[in-house]
Amino acid sequence: MADNEIDDSASARQLPGDSLLAVNGGDPVRKTPWPTYDRGAVCVHPEDEEAALRAIRSHLYFRYDYRPAQETECARFEAELCRYFETRHALATSSGTTALALAIMAAGIEPGSLIACPGFTFAATPSAIILAGCVPFLVEVDENLHLDVADLRSRWTPQVKAIMVVHMRGFAGDMGALTAFADEMGVPVFEDAVPALGAELDGRKLGTFGLAGAFSTQSDKALNSGEGGFLLTDDSALFARATVLSGAYEGRLRRHFPGAEPPIATDLDLPLLSFRMDEIRAALLRAELDRLPDRLAAFHRNYDYVAAALADVAGIHIRRPVAAGAYLGEAFIFLVPHGRAEWFARALCHEGIEARNLGSDADHNIRAFWNWRFLFRGMETAAIKQLLPNATRYLQRAVDIPLSSTLSRADCDQLVAAVRKVAGALASTADLAPTVLDTGEGSAWAGQR
Ligand SMILES: *Cc1c(COP(=O)(O)O)cnc(C)c1O
What we know:
Oligomer: single chain
CATH superfamily of the largest domain: Type I PLP-dependent aspartate aminotransferase-like (Major domain)
Protein name: dTDP-4-amino-4,6-dideoxygalactose transaminase
CATH class of the largest domain: Alpha Beta
Structural class: alpha/beta
Keywords: Pyridoxal phosphate
Strand order of the largest sheet: 1-9-8-5-4-2-3
CATH architecture of the largest domain: 3-Layer(aba) Sandwich
CATH topology of the largest domain: Aspartate Aminotransferase, domain 2
Order of helices and strands: HHHEHEHEHEHEEEEEHHEEHEHHEHH
Strand content: 5-15%
Largest sheet: 7 strands, mixed
InterPro entries: DegT/StrS_aminotransferase, PyrdxlP-dep_Trfase, PyrdxlP-dep_Trfase_major, PyrdxlP-dep_Trfase_small
Number of strands: 13
Organism: Nocardia tenerifensis
Bound molecules: pyridoxal-5'-phosphate
Cofactor: pyridoxal 5'-phosphate
């Protein structure tokens, strides 16, 4: 039997008729497509549409025009972000990637510096580091897929000039440990808080722990304007430089410092990168921001319901947050025994639940570091995986299911039923042939059973 395959005939024999896996020809748990943003499962209300239409009908699409700044959609959006996140400054941008790059550039990190980032993140994170002229320095993640601070310490070199933490799939990084370590090393922390917009750790919003936090408003994120993003910081000089870099030329920087002098002497020392947001998107986002708390509550409700309903399932390790409730709830990730995740995800897809094995060899998931070939020209995949063996192992075992905030209780029940069904088949196969499970995988895994 091949490593990735379950003895399907054996599991089929073990289970009652209605438990026959869809992947083996049984009835799927769900027959309609799983709701995802790219199928239109998004939260856009009539009020949001109206706001965008008002901006379109105004014919004033550029954020810097004859109007006083405080009458523009972009400036109002930024002011509302400052209130919501309790930060001094916010800058609306063209994307999350550009917000990340602006943070690095505006912090004055020398081009060519190493910037630490985890081996589990969307490829936009290392890409933004490159866009800022720096070099990604990859760090392990632990079994809960959080950046591993102990590994960062053991790999540390003085060429590392900043740490980019990623609250990946909406789960907070361990900001206490990370900021303490960064302080010890004398480098800033940037937060890729893109997947965690609105999520909190210990009562504080993610994206407000580091020197600067970056967010995206691409359609898959908690605020959706198709494309877009923003940067948050309390550092006025960083904010001023980021604003000029984003494209505030000929004194337009002043509009971002009402009633005060900008903290940089001139805007002529920096290039203009045109990473601005436009008025139509800002209008849409301002309207969506009004209902963000409802949306966040829906994410949490769905996630908590699913996680509680699956907590007792043998053979799966549900990703653990660094603190109670420190996640958005936009995705449900769990680990299964080594060599089973690709099959598990495929079986779930057959049951009608969209799932992916993050570290699959069959599809090049751009969230696994070994697929960032742009960092490793000329290297074989096996050699790349050797650079971060733990991240490789955990991603190979990880199953990832998107949880749209539009999910109904019935959708969640189907997800739960499908995971139970597939895990049940896996367990019964394991009972028949215990050697199928890679029990040498480690105590962390054994502790979950
Ligand atoms: C989506 C995403 C980004 C990129 O945001 P864009 O607006 O698409 O540029 C960056 N980092 C993470 C972790 C993301 O999920």
